[in-house]
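Design job #97: recover the sequence.
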């Protein structure tokens, strides 16, 4: 029995191990799963609102032709999309 992976375990003989498990049983039974800790789960991919490659390439080309700063990679700013 160990509380976390990598922690050291006390050397227990079978009778002490049994007593320890009985003593800790109510606490272990009340544990929540680690996944229930309220952490937000990722539900979308990295390209959730990026559009397709042809559309973004056209937007970048238009922006550069009209004097806007648009990088070759990454997110296209809302200002460029609205322009």
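Job complete. Output follows.
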């Amino acid at each position: 029995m160990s509380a976390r992976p990598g922690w050291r375990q006390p050397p227990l003989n079978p009778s002490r191990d049994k007593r320890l498990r009985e003593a800790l049983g109510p606490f272990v039974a009340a544990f929540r799963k680690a996944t229930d800790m309220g952490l937000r789960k990722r539900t979308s991919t990295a390209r959730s609102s990026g559009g397709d490659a042809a559309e973004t390439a056209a937007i970048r080309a238009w922006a550069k032709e009209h004097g806007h700063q648009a990088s070759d990679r990454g997110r296209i700013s809302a200002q460029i999309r609205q322009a």
